[in-house]
Amino acid sequence: MIDLKPLVHRILEDYPLPWLGTHGVGHWARVLENGLRLAEATGAKVEVVKWFAIFHDSRRINEGVDDGHGCRGADLAAALRGDFFNLSDDDFALLYEACVAHTDGLIEADITIQTCWDADRLDLGRVGITPERTKLCTRAAKRQEMIQWADGRAAFEVVPEIVEAEWGIDFRE
Prior knowledge:
Layout: H1 5-13, H2 25-42, H3 46-55, H4 69-80, H5 89-100, H6 111-121, H7 139-142, H8 144-155, H9 162-165
Helix pairs in contact: 2-3, 2-6, 3-5, 3-6, 4-5, 5-6
């Protein structure tokens, strides 16, 4: 099991937005859980999916339209690779591409990248958008049960237990 706590805390040192904001740690954790659930069905590379969940919105500077934030997140991943996590060159290339293009609306890519994109898109309920099957990449994400499960959690902005239990972030204080 990967210990994400040191990396999450390192990213939050420079994260300018509210930690529980629209694109903050609650979103990262839901994307992680979405991605892990999808990866079971798609065969995606789990390590890439995990790192994507953490990095894809890690360098946003606002909660609205933020051109380039995926690339900034990918660049942060490149800067922290080797110190906070390790991936092979091929897997890192997948992570980088998934982060850079996650808001471009693409649906064709490597299955791991598609799984990353779907994990993020399934969390659109947090901004009042129900995920559309035609904008999802994988059969697993297009399943009605998956959309309902993920969208329900997103709409109510559920903060997964891993935020406190594994990442050590307690918002009740």
